[in-house]
Amino acid sequence: MEIDLKKMHEKPPYGMIAILFFGAFVAILNNTLLNIALPSIMTEFSVKPSEVQWLTTGFMLVNGIMIPASAFFIQKFSNRRLFLTAMTLFTIGTALAIYAPNFGLLIVARMIQASGSAMMMPLLMNVMLVAFPIEKRGTAMGMFSLVMFTAPAIGPTLSGWVVEHYSWRTLFEIVLPFGVLSILLALYKLKNITPNRDVTLDVFSLILSSIGFGGLLYGFSSAGDKGWGSPIVYGTIAIGTISVVLFVIRQLKMKDPMLDFRIYKHPMFALASIISIVMSVAMFSGMILTPLYVQNVRGISPFEAGILMLPGAIVMGLMSPITGKIFDKYGPRFISLVGLVITVISTFYLSKLELHTGYYYLMALYTVRMFGMSMVMMPIMTNGMNQLPMRSNPHGTAMNNTLQQVSGAIGSAILLTIMTKRMESAGAELAQEAATSGTTSGDAAAVQQEIMLKSMLEGINYSFLVSAFIAVVALFLAFFVKRVKPNQPDFVIGEGSEKVTSSPLEPVKE
């Protein structure tokens, strides 16, 4: 069966895309569900914090291995087969987690889940790029952003409520029927619309990619817990860096690479990647530093901390389709500049928190920050993807998702390190002041507690200030963004091959 792209662009397959959205939302929501449940799992299986962390670290490592390989899978297999395989793996992992009798099997279950969910975002993005014409891509990718940003933010709030009232296994029990429903809907409604070609997997590239991106993710993610001086941390970062360099060199020499780095010859895609990396660092900083302040400085419960961040997620989700429509009409520069100005200002105000900053003031500030970010990520990313030839879409989506994972881990590790160092120096200064003024002669425990809270607050504020300057870098780069207007493709897509009836999708300079 052949599908005419022109005809599909006139009437996009909304029902099919809705199924993909549903499956992706369930898979991504699951990624953040387990974080708040870790203490309960530690108690049930009698494991240490360093061991229980493997439930999230293992999940992340599998993502780091699978996402770079997604370009190969998307080109090799039909979107229907890939979605069904991914959701089946995810659902099997979820069912296994519900009944896992020991901690080892629970880790295996999470890794099986990850092998399926890792494919969802690149697959969904690639389908969106094929299914919609260029002039409607902004709106389509806005809906995509709704899934990408809302699902991870809802996770902690839902998880906090469930763990407070039920067993941690309930988290998986909630997800399982949705996974099964996604498979049934896909079997009934999903069709093949993405072009495929006969590509072969270079095993050595896969090994280098797995060691490289996996090593970087593990090393930087472990830095906050183990410290930068740990051999595990700097060792895995060094091995990961060397492997990534070798991987890139190998890809550039290959005629048919697993992940094509030659897409960076397109200037707007390269600029979009840099801005996305910078923004990922800034966004993850807010997601980590805000809960630290709310829970550790203010002493608010995890569930209330999740509620505080929920309006920001909702605003980001609601804004994504609106942002997409504005992008389609006016292009990326104006809306991204407005969003970045809001992000910089709100992040700067987050660097001025006090010991008793109001809960609702903080909620409003965090929501405004997310509102600003909702205007940046999707327009910049979509504009970059628009400059790629259609045949390079799988490589572009794989590259974007991989870099967001790695930059988020690196940025979080660096900002947490900055916070810790500032906290230590502030704590030493406050202790010296207390000793000089003689305030330590009273209730020593109370004084120590006050010093700890003030020093942590100082560390968090300083990290937010650094994050604000990072956002300024993105603001500067956004001035160089230019709108890309590619030619409309004239493709007829068959069951297993891409048939080009006119020139491939190449950029046209404005």
UniProtKB/TrEMBL annotation:
Location (main, coarse): membrane
Subcellular location: Cell membrane
Major facilitator superfamily (MFS) profile domain residues: 16-486
Alphabetical list of PROSITE patterns matching this protein: MFS
Family matches, as CDD domains: MFS_LmrB_MDR_like
Chain segments annotated as coiled-coil in the UniProt record: none
Keywords from the UniProt entry: Cell membrane, Membrane, Transmembrane, Transmembrane helix, Transport
Segments passing through the bilayer: 12-34, 54-74, 81-100, 112-132, 144-162, 168-187, 199-220, 232-249, 269-294, 300-322, 334-353, 359-381, 462-481
SUPFAM superfamilies, sorted: MFS general substrate transporter
Keyword Nucleotide-binding part of the UniProt annotation: no
One Pfam family cited in the UniProt record for this chain: MFS_1
Membrane topology: Multi-pass membrane protein
Protein family (similarity comment): Belongs to the major facilitator superfamily. EmrB family.
NCBIfam families: efflux_EmrB
Name of the protein described by the UniProt record: DHA2 family efflux MFS transporter permease subunit
Organism: Sporosarcina saromensis
